[in-house]
Amino acid sequence: MGNSESSSTDPRYAAAARSFATKGLEDLRSLHSSLAAQSESNGKYISPKVFKGYIEIDGPLGDRVFDLVSQKRKDQRLTFEDLVIAKATYEKGTNQDIEEFIYQLLDVSGDGTVGRSDLEVVLTSMLDNVFHEQCSEPKQVVEVFINAANLTSDGMSFEDFQTWCAHLPAVRKYLGCLLTPSDSGSQVPQLLLPDNIDHGHILLTKEYAWHIGGALPNELDEWKLLYHSGVHGLSFNTFLGNMQNEPTVLIIKDKEGYIYGGFASQPWEKHPDFYGDMRSFLFQLYPKASIFRPSGANHNLQWCAVNFSSDSIPNGIGFGGRASHFGLFISANFDQGHTFTCTTFGSPSLSKTDRIHPEVIECWGVVSRKSDSDRAEVNRGTVLERFKEDRNMLNLVGLANSSDT
């Protein structure tokens, strides 16, 4: 206990220690003693090599983490007091405290600004760690993440960094878990494909899934491809027929080459008005990656209209905005749609132009592997079958067309 007692007069340590219960401090003492023993320092400090092995991050990012945690002393020694202060700030501090720590972390070069080269180093290291150096297109993924940042000649300000984190929750989650390697900052959804589909034709890469998954609860860990226009054709009926009673990720690649979509927290079911809940969101994947969560401005979250004859109820699927002026909308013919600036999600137009023409549409069922039996009990057939069940009711009120669009 000599190390902690001898430094108990340090006001930073005294304040940090109060953030932990006795058991928490004892656990940190055990962790420090274990790592210090591996450092061959007579139990006094942790070496950079051992610390970077513990957090499982090497290279410039690992060096930067060690530098910050050891209070930038440059003596290559991480003491018990350092560990307590860093853990208290990084894990027990306010969100502002934590983000200020992460913002300093991004300044890998240590020149006082967070620039493009810093972000490239951090993101490359992050992808290597998350995907075990098996990222399919690391340069492209790094680029789409950087494109979401507001970088000026003076670098990225702290306020712009906070906005960047809000648009990239997976990156924020990862950077917020560096001192707890076993935490959930690097979980990647499991993608399940039918045997007859070539992986090369799929829009959703594991890197994109990780990006989208950062905005979802951790238990939503298994994603199953339900519909792909290249296999099933650009058909609204087929799309609806393949849906199940589960949340979905809708992804679109348009003829401009832009890739974007939305997470639908509720099943795709026929409604004459908006429905859904505040878990839904819009996203961009290429040429930049961003998540746009509900702003609270309204509850116009999810849209699914089928066989309505009223001009005020456009047939198709969409998210946000208002009827005929959605944040994202695909018509029932699946051949056109639009994406406008949207207050529902605080999102811009997701493509190069407001009017879009889909080239590829795919949809993934997002489920928990723990709830298969529960889902089986609540499933009442496909969405299309449930639509047909209320066909007679729709005819009674005069809202259904005579055709089966």
Helix content: 25-40%
What do the pLDDT scores average to?
87
> What's the number of extended β-strand segments?
12
In N-to-C order, the SSE pattern is HHHHHHHHHHHEHEHHEEEEEEEEEEHHH
Explain this structure to me?
This protein is an alpha+beta fold and 405 residues long. It has 17 helices and twelve strands. The strands form two sheets. Strands 1-2-12-3-4-5-6 form a seven-stranded mixed sheet. Helix 4 packs across helix 5 (59-69) and helix 5 (59-69) crosses helix 7 (95-106). The longest helix is centred in the N-terminal third of the chain and has 17 residues, at 22-38.
What order do the helices and strands come in, and which of them pair?
Blueprint: H1 2-6, H2 11-17, H3 22-38, H4 48-55, H5 59-69, H6 80-92, H7 95-106, H8 116-130, H9 138-146, H10 158-167, H11 169-175, E1 190-192, H12 206-213, E2 222-228, H13 229-232, H14 236-242, E3 248-254, E4 259-264, E5 281-286, E6 290-292, E7 302-305, E8 316-322, E9 325-331, E10 337-338, E11 355-356, E12 358-367, H15 372-378, H16 383-389, H17 391-396
Parallel strand pairs: 1-2
Antiparallel strand pairs: 2-12, 3-4, 3-12, 4-5, 5-6, 7-8, 8-9, 9-10, 10-11
Give a brief description:
This protein is α+β, with helices and mostly antiparallel strands.
Spell out the key features of this protein.
405 residues, alpha+beta, 7-stranded mixed sheet, 5-stranded antiparallel sheet, 12 strands
